[in-house]
Amino acid sequence: MENFEQLFSILNTEAQKETEGTYLEGLLVALEKWLDGDLHVDVHNLSKEEIRKAIQIAILKGMREGTQPNHQMTPDTFGFLLSFFVEQSFEEQLQAGQSLNVTDLAVGTGNLLYALMNAFDGKIEATGVEVDELLIQLAAATANLLEQPVELHHQDALKDLLIDPADAIVCDVPYGYYPNEEVALDYELCAPEGMSYAHHLFIEQSVNYVKEGGYMFFLVPATLFESEQAQQLHKYLKKHVWIQSVIQLPENLFTSRVHEKSILVLQKKSATMRAPKEVLLAKVPNMQNKEALAMFFEKVRMWKENK
């Protein structure tokens, strides 16, 4: 049994002892006991990634048992790919030993953000925003156990935020309609009629809170540019950002066409920078095909050199 599986077994057993609430609430109690020293876990042989993976598996179990539609986790595959694109976009800065300020406006339990922070251990200072109280409590406990520097804000990310502009935004963009129509009125991407798309508003809010020339890395519905509000989104993007990349993800990562997602990489316009010569349009091969995956990464590097 691998280290992270042993840790999951400990957390799973402890979470199930809490019979009053849900499994996720029991898991939060277990994590807090671990932090307080009331649950013994031998961490000497555990890496930050093993700790993150064990907690992730436990959270996934809890989400599958629950019924809350907003309780969803970004799979590790996406974190791995986003880490690559962040590395390519900030290669000079990272090689110079400079840190990045990264914000996730829908941080959830923090899995995507912490996968990125572990990949660039010590080089990222992070901020996360989450409206769900249980999810952000799980994110806070996980951050403490990983000893990763993250500032968490419990609020609706589409309202005014007291955070500094980031070098980069990463976000598994929440999909669907945004219920607070009064708040939506403040956005350029507010729907002319009816309710506005939350995923459109999250993209606009990201543009609001990223520095000029900064990058945004989104996981978006594969049908993002096919909806009835797509023309409005195109117009907004053309005005404020440069589209860097649109990356189609493998179909086998999703249970159905409806759930398929793509990676969208945007750069906020800056007077001191220029748009890429062409947008990178590519499809990630089956992640099990290492040769094809290596060719995909090389294609991205070549595009970067020529952009």
From TrEMBL:
Keywords: Methyltransferase, Transferase
Tagged with keyword Methyltransferase: yes
UniProt keyword DNA damage present: no
InterPro entries: DNA_methylase_A-5, DNA_Protect_Modify, S-AdoMet-dep_Ade-MeTrfase_prd, SAM-dependent_MTases_sf, YtxK-like_N
GO molecular function: DNA binding; N-methyltransferase activity
CDD domains, A to Z: AdoMet_MTases
Gene Ontology BP terms: methylation
Signal peptide from the UniProt entry: none
Domain YtxK-like N-terminal helical, residue spans: 41-63
Ranges for domain DNA methylase adenine-specific: 97-291
Protein name: DNA methylase
